[in-house]
Design a protein that fits this description.
Layout lengths: L7 H8 L37 E3 L25 E2 L6 E2 L19 H8 L4 E6 L12 E3 L43 H4 L8 H17 L10 H12 L4 H6 L2 H7 L15 H5 L3 E2 L7 E2 L3 H14 L10 H6 L1 H6 L3 H10 L1
Antiparallel strand pairs: 1-4, 2-3, 4-5, 6-7
Length: about 350
């Protein structure tokens, strides 16, 4: 999608030879037989899936091509006419995929809407063999519209807390934890025998607080479990021996030396260093946000206490609400944070 706040990975893919829509040529792809030699991809791509296809460029913010199969996802393109009744809807953009809504009724014409959220950004599909794309696979995928570009005129300050599908009485916890891997506590990731309960929720709360404040998940774009565990140990320091021993030796050696020092070229890493990185602001306002030093220290403290390696030592919800970080951002976040940073 052509917009100022494009995903950094998508932006990086486009910066090389800025080609509209990440297309390999100026021609629309066709499934018609061709005598031409298959062209090589212009940019790197993720591994080919079982259907023999791959997404040209990087695959951030797109659904998995694997899901386009018989009795699976059905390709839908910009400009498609849908019904019934016939020709009632025309696709002009995409709001999301999976659990996100893909249909919206809005009192704006197409030109007005696209001027607010940008033109659709397309990533084209290729085959490793150079043969035609299977009929059940899409010719391209469309990145979801960045609705935050609408700005404060169209965004409400009335926040709704949703998605309580995993809620349960404290007295009868479920046998398993059905939350996404990036919000699972370290004892669950390493399959340590510990009852699922409030301690798991407190870990997830820490991840959520970071995501709300920084507008970025705490553990962003980390698909593999061992890589996620390595990131946790890198941010929060050497773990207790019981956790270290539960991690496979192969995984440990991949990310750390015998002194639990990260192998990465960036050197020592910590939650404080992560919080100091400027991030893009969603919606209206400055393009980047940087936590003031005073808030950075307090936010790092509350995250360390919520994501403590020992479930028994994670602070309670009452202690969370009394934490100095909440006092700093309460009522008037910008004023309080600026005052604290200058004092």
């Amino acid at each position: 999608m052509s917009s100022k706040s494009q995903s950094p990975l998508l932006e990086a893919a486009r910066d090389g030879d800025a080609v509209a829509d990440n297309k390999p040529s100026n021609e629309e792809p066709s499934n018609e037989p061709s005598n031409k030699e298959p062209s090589k991809p212009l940019v790197s791509h993720y591994r080919t899936n079982t259907h023999g296809t791959y997404l040209l460029g990087l695959s951030d913010d797109f659904e998995h091509l694997e899901r386009y199969e018989k009795d699976g996802y059905h390709p839908v393109y910009i400009g498609d006419i849908l019904g019934p009744p016939a020709a009632q809807y025309r696709v002009i953009h995409k709001l999301g995929y999976g659990g996100f809504g893909t249909l919206a009724h809005i009192d704006m014409n197409e030109e007005e809407l696209l001027s607010c959220i940008g033109e659709p950004y397309k990533a084209y599909v290729e085959t490793e063999s150079g043969e035609d794309i299977p009929a059940f696979q899409p010719k391209y995928l469309t990145a979801p519209a960045e609705m935050e570009l609408l700005g404060t005129k169209y965004l409400t300050d009335q926040i709704c807390v949703i998605d309580f599908g995993q809620c349960h009485p404290i007295s009868s916890p479920p046998p398993g934890l059905g939350i996404p891997q990036h919000y699972q506590p370290i004892e669950v990731l390493l399959e340590v025998e510990y009852p699922i309960g409030l301690a798991s929720d407190l870990w997830a709360l820490g991840c959520t607080l970071h995501e709300i404040r920084q507008q970025m998940p705490l553990f962003y774009m980390i698909p593999e479990k061992d890589e996620l565990i390595g990131e946790i140990f890198s941010l929060f320091g050497k773990p207790p021996q019981i956790l270290w021993d539960k991690w496979t030796q192969e995984a440990r050696q991949k990310y750390f030396d015998d002194q639990v020092r990260w192998h990465g070229s960036c050197g020592a890493y910590s939650i404080e260093k992560l919080l100091s990185i400027p991030l893009e602001r969603l919606g209206a306002g400055p393009e980047e946000i940087t936590l003031p030093e005073a808030e950075l220290v307090m936010m790092a403290d509350i995250l360390r206490k919520l994501l403590h390696y020992d479930p028994e030592k994670r602070i309670s919800t009452e202690e969370v609400l009394r934490h100095e970080w909440f006092k700093m951002v309460d009522d008037s976040p910008s004023d309080r944070v600026e005052d604290a940073a200058s004092s």
